């Protein structure tokens, strides 16, 4: 079984913050995921998105930064979209980021050096063993994908919808 977090940029005026509507929208987008990634309107991370968020948080901790600042935005930033009153906000986890938050995430990712992140916290995620270079490369690819995606979404003034598919 594969599990992904799916990021999709969209003009805020084109969507509704309604869980049922967004679920249908995101399923359609997932069906077109490869083309949308090539167009710069989508990206995804399989299985390790929580570890990518942990890398950002650990690096923030290592430099004494506010852990609630933009370090949290790329993966978990935004607000949950509920099924309805009293609904479990994490079934499936769906998050909406408004354009100002998208811009903050893009600014953070543009400003932070991956080498700086990895040097301050990477050993927690890839160890120092023979697979260290493979782990580093995987995290670098996720970081660069997020950097490019958020930069594009911010330049368009778009919102971002995130959902976890299992």
Describe this structure in words.
This protein is of the alpha+beta class. It is built from 8 helices and 5 strands; from the N terminus they run βααβααββααααβ. The protein has a 5-stranded antiparallel sheet with strand order 2-1-5-4-3, with helices on both faces.
Please provide a brief summary of the model.
By secondary structure, the protein is an alpha+beta fold. It has helices at 19-31, 33-39, 49-62, 73-76, 99-111, 114-121, 123-126, 132-156; strands spanning 4-10, 42-46, 79-80, 94-97, 159-165. It is 53% helix and 15% strand.
Features:
166 residues, alpha+beta, 8 helices, 15% strand, globular
Number of helical segments? 8
**How much is the average pLDDT?**
84
- Rg, rounded, reads 16 Å
Biggest sheet character: 5 strands, antiparallel
Q: How does the helix and strand content classify structurally?
A: alpha+beta
The number of strands is 5
Segments where pLDDT lies below 50 for 5+ residues?
Answer: none
SSE topology sketch:
Layout: E1 4-10, H1 19-31, H2 33-39, E2 42-46, H3 49-62, H4 73-76, E3 79-80, E4 94-97, H5 99-111, H6 114-121, H7 123-126, H8 132-156, E5 159-165
Antiparallel strand pairs: 1-2, 1-5, 3-4, 4-5
Helix pairs in contact: 3-6, 5-8
